[in-house]
Design goal:
eight-stranded parallel β-barrel; binds SN-glycerol-1-phosphate; single chain; alpha/beta; 231 residues
């Protein structure tokens, strides 16, 4: 996880055919993350996991509903929404999940993510009642809280559905000393992938998979170009 540069995020509530899934899994991405905000069930999560498992790519679950926690993933990412207006998304759902599953949890497989949701129109913002009117100093402060106060290994800046402020992302990443900055939102092709990769440690590509698969796949090569320094 600490070396990932590129991740595809697949939503169990959205259809993807076998050919498209194969292209995603063989793309050279560092990992496939399974997660979504609405309509995620145990059944559609199991189904997607079993299809991804035909390939060798690391496959992780980002948990948004404790009814849809499926065994068999490589890692389990748990969002803690630092700017949620509804405290259930900071500690409430987590408390219930650990109450139910605590004795059987494999803690070494669990990665807590400090989320900051910045697109007020996204489903994630609405569900969590996120306070999205934040400037760079606010987000840098959340980053420091995530890393230094709560010792979280990941800060996830989430603009789901729209391309965000790369200056804000870059300045926040620079303020982190050890945590990784994940960026997701509106990466729809190589150009935005390059911009995001220069600002963040890891970029997440979601919606583009379903909107324009060829362009989504180009984001993998774009990251490899950034890595090689051949922009
Ligand atoms: C969503 O951050 C991811 O959780 C990716 O965002 O769907 O806008 O690519 P997009």
């Amino acid at each position: 996880m600490r070396r990932w540069k590129h991740v595809f995020k697949l939503d169990p509530d959205r259809d993807i055919d076998d050919m498209a899934l194969e292209r995603i899994c063989l793309s050279g991405t560092d990992a496939v993350m399974v997660g979504g905000t609405t309509g995620v069930t145990f059944d559609n999560t199991v189904d997607l996991l079993s299809r991804i498992r035909r390939f060798e790519v690391p496959c992780v679950l980002e948990i948004s509903d404790r009814e849809a926690i499926v065994p068999g993933f490589d890692l389990y990412f748990i969002p803690i929404v630092l700017n949620a207006g509804d405290p259930d998304w900071i500690v409430g759902h987590h408390h219930l999940a650990v109450k139910d599953f605590g004795p059987m949890m494999q803690w070494e497989q669990i990665v807590a993510e400090g989320y900051v949701i910045l697109n007020g129109n996204s489903s994630a913002a609405k569900v969590t009642r996120a306070r999205t009117e934040l400037d760079t100093a606010d987000v840098v402060a959340y980053g420091r809280m995530a890393e230094r106060l709560f010792r979280l290994p990941v800060l996830y800046i989430e603009y789901s559905g729209t391309f965000g402020d790369m200056e804000l992302v870059s300045r926040t990443a620079s303020s982190l000393e050890g945590a990784r900055l994940f960026y997701g939102g509106g990466i729809d092709g190589a150009d935005k992938a390059r911009q995001a990769a220069e600002a963040a440690h890891t970029i997440i590509v979601g919606n583009a998979i379903y909107e324009n698969l060829d362009r989504a796949l180009e984001t993998v090569q774009a990251i490899q170009d950034v890595e090689k320094g051949c922009l």
